[in-house]
Design goal:
Four copies of one chain form a homotetramer.
Chain A: E1 2-11, H1 16-26, E2 30-39, E3 44-53, H2 57-67, E4 73-77, E5 82-88, H3 93-103, E6 109-116, H4 122-127, E7 132-134, H5 142-154, E8 161-164, H6 173-178, E9 183-187, H7 199-206, E10 210-217, E11 227-234, H8 241-264, E12 268-271, E13 274-277
Parallel strand pairs in A: 5-6, 5-8, 6-7, 8-9
Antiparallel strand pairs in A: 1-3, 1-4, 2-3, 9-10, 10-11, 12-13
Amino acid sequence: MSQYRVLIDADDEKGLVYKVSTVFYNNDLNILSNSEFVDKDNNKFFMRSVVDGEIALDKLKQLIVEILPSNANVKVIEPKKKNIIIMVTKEMHALGDILIRHEADELEANILAVVSNYDELESLVGKFGIPFITISHIDLSRDEHESKVLECLAQFKDVDYIVLAKYMRILTPKFVEVYENKIINIHHSFLPAFIGSNPYKQAYDRGVKIIGATSHFVNNNLDEGPIIAQEVIRVDHAYSWRDMQRSGKDAEKVVLSHAIKLALEDRIFVFANKTVIF
Amino acid sequence: MSQYRVLIDADDEKGLVYKVSTVFYNNDLNILSNSEFVDKDNNKFFMRSVVDGEIALDKLKQLIVEILPSNANVKVIEPKKKNIIIMVTKEMHALGDILIRHEADELEANILAVVSNYDELESLVGKFGIPFITISHIDLSRDEHESKVLECLAQFKDVDYIVLAKYMRILTPKFVEVYENKIINIHHSFLPAFIGSNPYKQAYDRGVKIIGATSHFVNNNLDEGPIIAQEVIRVDHAYSWRDMQRSGKDAEKVVLSHAIKLALEDRIFVFANKTVIF
Amino acid sequence: MSQYRVLIDADDEKGLVYKVSTVFYNNDLNILSNSEFVDKDNNKFFMRSVVDGEIALDKLKQLIVEILPSNANVKVIEPKKKNIIIMVTKEMHALGDILIRHEADELEANILAVVSNYDELESLVGKFGIPFITISHIDLSRDEHESKVLECLAQFKDVDYIVLAKYMRILTPKFVEVYENKIINIHHSFLPAFIGSNPYKQAYDRGVKIIGATSHFVNNNLDEGPIIAQEVIRVDHAYSWRDMQRSGKDAEKVVLSHAIKLALEDRIFVFANKTVIF
Amino acid sequence: MSQYRVLIDADDEKGLVYKVSTVFYNNDLNILSNSEFVDKDNNKFFMRSVVDGEIALDKLKQLIVEILPSNANVKVIEPKKKNIIIMVTKEMHALGDILIRHEADELEANILAVVSNYDELESLVGKFGIPFITISHIDLSRDEHESKVLECLAQFKDVDYIVLAKYMRILTPKFVEVYENKIINIHHSFLPAFIGSNPYKQAYDRGVKIIGATSHFVNNNLDEGPIIAQEVIRVDHAYSWRDMQRSGKDAEKVVLSHAIKLALEDRIFVFANKTVIF
């Protein structure tokens, strides 16, 4: 008895649900959960099913691919721990939250390593028996530093996601291309407000009454990738921007851990720079 | 070209989605949206589809009934305005919100009448050209008063929902039986906390930091019917119970209007004293 | 026995609280509530006290002014209904919410008139016996139209606040100058995200997971005045921009009514394009 | 130059603010922040000021005590790390969040020890170099076990707070008396709903749409002490009670860490089984 997550996206047309459920029915698969959505603007169909039964993964995938139009993307995934690498700079809160969840066995993930341009967090990561790799950017150009990081990451096989847990350096298109839709970032602002540096200072100067944090995939334009999750926190005039920053950390870690969980459970589709989340 | 909402609940078994989607496919129906849920504790399957195509309502219903197990409940509904009656006592906020939404044509509903045991709100309702019926409870026993109300309601044909917009009298099982799962109430508390009278005073005395409101169907036990929606509002030590009551009104009207909207769009299943909402 | 709201802002220095409380104490005034805040960046002190006792308003003000440094701004206000004018275009929800609150006597305000560039809402306003004035902008330049509006408003004495309840025209600096910090607007977005027209469409295109609304005072730059209150609503991929717009209306009316309440209760200080709210 | 937190509660009467601010003024103290509240039901005055200047702590306290009525409680506290002991059973999330905040130096606290009736969390605590003490309850009566715990705690001097981070045993009145208003608990429910064991199962059975968590001081009646903070999370019909439990953990850790922060910053007054929080 195996369990599979079936993810399909395709140009919408009549009969897609019928066709997929025919495969499930004919192969005596039990549907544990089922979600569909049609993006009418783009005429795009999305479906995520969790099924169990007696069938091999490859066989199931083949049967679905055969019955669907050729434009369909079909993934059949067996639930198991995914491999992630975390990148950080100096701040502890987002990384710490992930490490504790990992230690509590709440995450469907192996943390292969934590990579940083500083060594401030080495001691924390070491406590949990996870490799910590420092790749300093000092005296290096952006390209040189990034090449060293890419080289380092390349030694890890089957990396499913790179998690930027407050990694404070901008990635170049070259880097992003290698890990397309695999890099999950947290931006310490309620995007698209306050794009760029020190959003808490920007928010303070603007006198907003709510601040937020956004987790998103990284694409070529800084802070403009598909949004996965957002969280907000109420503030008032008594908050300095440092207070906002402090409070914002709670939103940041919540929103990043939430995005990681969605990714590990294969719940996210990316299309047209947006996400469909089941 | 007609549009239908198809609502199905049944004991769960393999092939239900397949069978229903087969009917849709064979009859060339387009699925506009589709939601399913299996309550594993009760082995119960729920499905709501919105489809359009060239088929008569009765024909579609018959085809689905035929293909499903005999325990299945099937509803096929053509979207149109439903008939509602609103019951109130003296407070204006929840009623007012419904009237404005009705006036703005935001509700898929005809308001047949507003019924009250007082005449305080007659002037407001009159402005909107909606019949207002006062049935005073003064000098009447609970049974006598309720019989008069039931008699009054009975003159209206095809009442889909009775909305209790801060109707402050307890309904007897006799009343509730007549309109099973058709009476939508708002309770001015975050149920099941503070059941009973003056929940704001209770909340104040307990020193809570968040208050709430709950919309639910009414069943025989006061405040214990299936919950449709809940809303919360933060308070602090500076709130008197009157302040909580005042702030609570905003949660009350939001949560009631939300429940009405869900009901009018046929999005609510009731099972095991709980709701499944698509 | 009179009740007063005392509002003070001044350059911060030692002894301000002492000096003000000395006046209260020497005149046997009872402090009902008291809030202070120091904006350290701008070295600015803000204080709002509610007191009661046997003293004339002018006398109390004079005593406070005398004891404070000359840069202090002192207001002593007797709580009473303020005069507001509401400006609208065609949408009903924000106006409707205000009218119902007014009818329920929840607002410390007289609504002198509703002014619009269309007559769509005349019927609704008429129900409540409030003057509705249509000043069409058709065939007029922006300046001509605005001059007519200003002329119209000028006939109302002692206007405390102009409330823009989805008034969809941009006001010129000339207009804003006349009613500085007296114009309360609602922007249908979580400012400063999505400044400008059709923010719901912008939000939809960006794929955000939370939308919002902002009430603020209007200054010379569109959408950039001091923020009074903000509210958010969660959305997901299934929301079209029309759905966002529909849901957003609830946030809009809540946030506008909240801002009006704060203004009517003299709880807002404006400084450095931000608000301090007690 | 010293900084002090001045906390005063007293029966309300005219002139309290005047008297305290006179002391501040005469001693050339600078008010950094100032909060007051009068509980009119109980005629009780609360005040928290943060001041700095050149004065000894004892001197400042004496001056304030002298000028206030004899019923006033006056605390003058110099900000410094407080001593806390954490008690846990087996769950990691709340403890983990505190340990990370402690490691990140976000808490004004020394963690003297973590005490548990199981050793499951010993390894985690050990990583952070904090003493972990297991006091098994196996084969002991409640009283015997508690006596051993009390004995253990007694060896620590100057314990400011005992934090129950999911300590799953009920404390007797004897225990609570020793640490009155010093024990901070987290209850995994939105109190007062679902008092008692397995509140998530209760919430699931009731079909609620929002779940929550509550941090509170512990008094003699289980789950009935003064509430410090509450947090809520939206759920829907698709949540099993295990899902609610999992999601609830995020609310639990947020609400507990928030309560700890408020306590460490001396922001909480307890009166009449409620809290006043500045």
